[in-house]
Amino acid sequence: MDRLKGQHALITGAASGFGAGIARAFASEGASIVLADLNVDGVRKVADELAAQGCEAYAVSVDVGDASSLKAAVAEAEERMSGLSVLVANAGIGQRPGDFSKTDEALIEHQFKINALGPYLSCQAALPALRRHGEGASILITVSGIALVPRPGLYGYGMAKSAAGYLMKSLALELAPERIRVNGLFPAVGDTAMLQEFAGGKRDEATDMKFAEALPLGRLITPEDVGAAAVYLSSPKEAAVMTGCAMPVDAGRCI
Ligand SMILES: NC(=O)c1ccc[n+]([C@@H]2O[C@H](COP(=O)([O-])OP(=O)(O)OC[C@H]3O[C@@H](n4cnc5c(N)ncnc54)[C@H](O)[C@@H]3O)[C@@H](O)[C@H]2O)c1
Predict the structure, then answer these.
(1) Is 157 an annotated catalytic residue?
(2) pLDDT along the chain (255 residues), means of 10
(3) Cβ neighbourhood burial of 30 (10 Å; 0-12, 13-18, 19+)
(4) By C-alpha distance, which of 140, 225, 154 is closest to 183?
(5) C-beta 158 within 6 A of ligand 1
(6) Ligand 1 pocket test: which of 12, 18, 95, 191 has the largest number of ligand atoms within 8 Å of its C-beta?
(7) Which fold has domain 8-190+223-247?
(8) Residue nearest to atom 14 of ligand 1 (CA)
(9) Is the CB of 114 within 6 Å of ligand 1?
(10) What is the value of pTM for the model shown?
């Protein structure tokens, strides 16, 4: 119940899917939360739901591709919660699969802007506030299993997520002397809105089944699965020595 009591978290991409799942799990473990997303109405809805349950939860607008928007979101989070101890850089975009020869430069650039530069800018904006919190602060980046075990057809997404994985590990080394931990969640195919993109734009029961059957445990990853892993890695007590950890949340996909 109180595994994150006293923690002040900023979660990007919290309007839906894994980010909303992480916010709900953090709320149930006693954290105060600022939920940030491009989708302002969506993120307000989740924040209102958590506030109605007694959690200290606020919604802010953010575009993770924009440094000044991130700085403003971090400043608001730090002010509202009187500090920031956890950044969850979770916001991201999916991609429809396509052959290498049909993957154009604009797609690759946009993928890098949101899925690689996004976490980079999020960490850079949050770091001064995390340093003010000091020892015990942490960063969690939602990467993807594709950065551990590649699959064909997702060049922009896979390349950008691999860069986010590199960021996670190198920042973990740099911040270790300050006792600030940096970890990554590497989920497999999730039961979220993004799955429609990975399914080529059309999602139905048959496509879900196909994705699920490709995973050793035979089911899709849920926001609750990701929320549970995020609570563990963000707990300064339970995960005190966990840093630079690329944690698969993947029903066995990356074995
Ligand atoms: N669903 C999967 O199969 C899967 C697998 C591995 C990793 N991931 C990663 O998990 C994270 C969450 O994805 P999800 O599956 O919950 O998808 P989702 O589409 O449900 O949620 C993504 C959220 O990010 C927000 N967002 C997108 N661009 C943004 C921007 N520029 N600024 C701020 N917010 C923005 C969206 O509005 C949305 O609320 C992403 O980083 C994604 O790449 C997803």
Answers:
(1) yes
(2) 96 99 98 98 98 98 98 98 98 97 95 98 98 98 98 96 98 98 98 97 96 98 98 98 98 96
(3) middle
(4) 140
(5) no
(6) 18
(7) Rossmann fold (3.40.50)
(8) 17
(9) yes
(10) 0.98
